[in-house]
Automatic annotation (TrEMBL):
GO terms for molecular function: DNA binding; DNA-binding transcription factor activity. One of its GO terms (cellular component) is cytosol. Residues 12-66 form the HTH cro/C1-type domain. This is HTH cro/C1-type domain-containing protein. Gene3D superfamilies: lambda repressor-like DNA-binding domains. Belongs to the short-chain fatty acyl-CoA assimilation regulator (ScfR) family. It comes from Rhizobium leucaenae. PANTHER family: HTH-TYPE TRANSCRIPTIONAL REGULATOR (PTHR46797), HTH-TYPE TRANSCRIPTIONAL REGULATOR SUTR (PTHR46797:SF23). Keywords: DNA-binding, Transcription, Transcription regulation. InterPro entries: Cro/C1-type_HTH (IPR001387), HTH_RamB (IPR026281), IrrE_HExxH (IPR010359), Lambda_DNA-bd_dom_sf (IPR010982), ScfR_C (IPR018653), TransReg_Diox_bact_type (IPR050807). It holds the Pfam family Peptidase_M78.
Length: 470
């Protein structure tokens, strides 16, 4: 095996400067010419084994210091430049390594500055939530990414769009011919727009769940999708065609800042309309009341998935026939919040949704099981929470399934009207909006200290929490 050449010019220069030597003085001690040392420091010559041994014996240099690849700094710089603000600024991995090796102090300074920026951004977000809880909404700039802007608009408003609901209910009444909604929607697409629906195997569409081919006028669906998800995709396509005027009318009040955000919101409203077609408001509201909001019972009644029914429950806010004001949150296994909606806007100020003690996190340990719990906020407000995992498209052998968890919640005062209220026997679990905003003492689940209190630094005593505070 060929010996790996070691080019360590910047590190060699740092050692020489640290010793306060000129190139001539170091070259004389190492028994090489100053010009050769100059070439080494410019990475135009590698370090030989003899020279490495000489450096070790003359200057007591740690050979690992010269043979290292500055991997730690380069890896941290990679994280810095992966930020959306900086992505694309560095052309390749080699330049990051060169920066880490040639200017390690500057690289460490960039890393510290980036960490400080992230910390300040997190603190500003936490403080904004704290102000929102007190009823003072700060005038902040628009979110950086179009998807964030759309989510922000939808989270802070009621998840009810009257124009879409009325149009979807009327369309469903005209459409239904028997009990097979999927067949009726396919027939409408073919007769009204000449669009055929076809399911394709995984190898033909490995990375897509759906694709509309304008040339052949065919809507392709992946066979990975469950029958419920296939029906939702068909209903979405129908909604974007049959209810486009109503969707456009509901889109305008959102006042989105970019065409990209408007495009994302249009598809979000299309999915909303698909649920309205699959589960028409009047029939769904009546069934939900009769079944006391039993999600599994509603699934069987309307031929829908758990996720579709849970999402639909958050939309029951028609003034003449309102249901219980549910809110919903979806997270993944890493704790990322993927979606937040509410019948009256997600209760960010009162509920938060960032507490690690919520049963939505425990749901991953019991896949497919419904977990019901009562929780209590520091101000005494109580909520009923229903959590369960859901799985994404069918995974092939060797692939890891996409599993997320849904939390469906409402005010605890509605417990007698909901089938899940019967499962509540223990005292409510004490939670907070989020660790950074929660001042509960002795919380075993605390992940971060509160921004509202100074840390407790008593060397003689330590509390139960990882982060003690005064």
């Amino acid at each position: 095996m060929a010996e790996r050449k070691i080019f360590a010019g910047p590190r060699m220069r740092r050692i020489r400067n640290g010793l306060g030597l000129t190139q001539t003085a170091m070259a004389q001690a190492l028994e090489i010419s100053p010009s050769y040392l100059n070439l080494i420091e410019r990475n135009q010559r590698p370090l030989t084994v003899q020279l490495l041994l000489k450096l070790s014996s003359v200057y007591r240099v740690d050979l690992d210091e010269l043979q290292g690849e500055a991997g730690g700094s380069a890896g941290q710089l990679r994280e810095v430049f992966a930020d959306p603000l900086l992505s694309g600024e560095i052309p390749g991995e080699q330049e990051l390594i060169e920066v880490a090796e040639a200017a390690p102090n500057a690289a460490n300074g960039m890393i510290k500055l980036y960490r400080a920026y992230r910390e300040q951004a997190a603190r500003l977000s936490d403080l904004a939530e704290l102000l929102a809880r007190e009823g003072r909404i700060p005038a902040l700039a628009s979110p950086r990414l179009p998807l964030d802007e759309v989510h922000d608009r939808l989270e802070h408003r009621s998840n009810f769009f009257a124009g879409i609901e009325d149009a979807a209910e009327a369309f469903h009444a005209r459409l239904m011919q028997g009990d097979d909604l999927a067949a009726s929607l396919k027939a409408w697409l073919r007769s009204e727009h000449g669009i055929a629906v076809r399911t394709l195997p995984v190898h033909a569409m490995p990375n897509l769940r759906r694709r509309y081919d304008r040339h052949s006028m065919r809507l392709f669906l992946s066979e990975r999708l469950s029958p419920f998800d296939q029906l939702q995709e068909i209903a979405t396509e129908v909604s974007l065609l049959a209810l486009r005027q109503e969707i456009r009318a509901e889109l305008e009040p959102l006042s989105l800042s970019t065409p990209e955000a408007s495009r994302i919101a249009r598809f979000e409203l299309g999915r909303y309309a698909a649920h309205a077609l699959m589960m028409p408001y009047g029939a769904f509201h009546n069934a939900a009341q009769r079944l006391h909001y039993d999600i599994d019972g509603l699934r069987a009644r309307f031929g829908a998935s758990y996720e579709q029914v849970a999402s639909r429950l958050t939309t029951l806010q028609r003034p003449s026939a309102a249901g219980i004001p549910f809110f919903l949150m979806e997270i993944d296994g890493a704790g990322h919040r993927l979606r937040k909606v509410g019948a009256q806007g997600f209760p960010q100020a009162r509920f938060g949704g960032g507490c690690p003690k919520l049963n939505v996190h425990a749901a991953f340990g019991q896949p497919g099981q419904i977990l019901v719990e009562a929780v209590e906020m520091p101000d005494g407000t109580g909520f009923l929470t229903v959590s369960r995992t859901i799985e994404g498209p069918q995974a092939n052998f060797g692939e890891r399934v996409r599993r997320t968890a849904l939390l469906l919640g409402c005010d605890l005062g509605f417990r007698e009207e909901i089938v899940y209220g019967k499962a509540l026997s223990a005292a409510p679990i004490a939670i907070g909006a989020a660790c950074r905003l929660c001042e509960r003492q002795g919380c075993l689940a605390r992940a971060e200290p509160p921004v509202t209190r100074p840390l407790g630094l008593d060397e003689m005593a330590a509390g139960l929490s990882v982060f003690d505070f005064q």
